Structures are given as C-alpha cells and as structure tokens.
Amino acid sequence: MDMAELRKCIGSTRFGIEAHEAPVAEFPVQPSQKDGLGRMCKLHWNQYTAGLARDAKARKTTRDEAAAPDPEPIETKPSRAKGKAKEPPLEPADGAAV
C-alpha cells in the first residue's frame, strides 16, 4: 500500500481510541468534510458514538435522580369499616363470668 491508500483515524482520548492509519475504504462518507470522508474509521466511529450515547444516558439519569424530590411519608387515616361498626362485648356489672 502506498500513502494515498491510507488515511489517519484521529481516535479519541476521552474514549481510549488511539489514532492510527487505516485504508481509505474503512472511512464513512461525510459530505460536510472537504474530502467527503469522516475523520474516524467506521469501527472507531461506532465506538465513539456509542460512548457519547452512554455518557448522555448517564447524565440524564443523574439529572433525573437529582431533580426528583424525595418522597415524603404519607400520613394514612385508619380505614372505616363498611357497614355497622362492631361494639366491644359488654362485661356484666356484678363481675360474674358469662
């Protein structure tokens, strides 16, 4: 291979992707660039975008947890029994057993 067939993949220090030389065919089409090719090879571009997505998800989770108020304890009232309430049994006035 001569130098015209290789291109430098810039890598990413943030995601531990080292810069390297790769064949031009391994670079994705990027119309916004002058030469029409991306700056990272396809493999590393996928790893880079997956890392960005993981970071964004982690930030969103952290932000949502911080924004969520702590649940306050809810005071509950004793439930009312349906129908007539049962009365406690009456004790005899003279203290005799029933």
Can you summarize this structure?
With 98 residues, the chain is an alpha+beta fold. The protein has a domain at 3-67.
Q: How would you characterize the overall build of this protein?
A:
- This protein is of the alpha+beta class and 98 residues long.
- The protein has a domain at 3-67.
- Helices cover 27% and strands 8% of the residues.
- It has a two-stranded antiparallel ribbon.
- It is rod-shaped.
- The chain starts with 5 loop residues before the first strand and ends in a 31-residue tail after the last helix.
SSE order and pairing:
Layout: E1 6-9, E2 20-23, H1 42-67
Antiparallel strand pairs: 1-2
- pLDDT < 50 stretches: none
Number of strands: 2
Q: What topology, given as strand order, has the largest sheet?
A: 1-2
**Distance separating the two termini:** 109 Å
Biggest sheet layout: 2 strands, antiparallel
Q: Mean pLDDT, nearest integer?
A: 83
Using only C-alpha atoms, the radius of gyration works out to 36 Å
Structural class: alpha+beta
Considering DSSP H and I runs of 4 or more, what fraction of the residues is helical? Answer: 25-40%
DSSP strand (E) fraction?
A: 5-15%
Large-scale geometry: rod-shaped
Number of helices: 1
The arrangement of helices and strands along the chain is: EEH
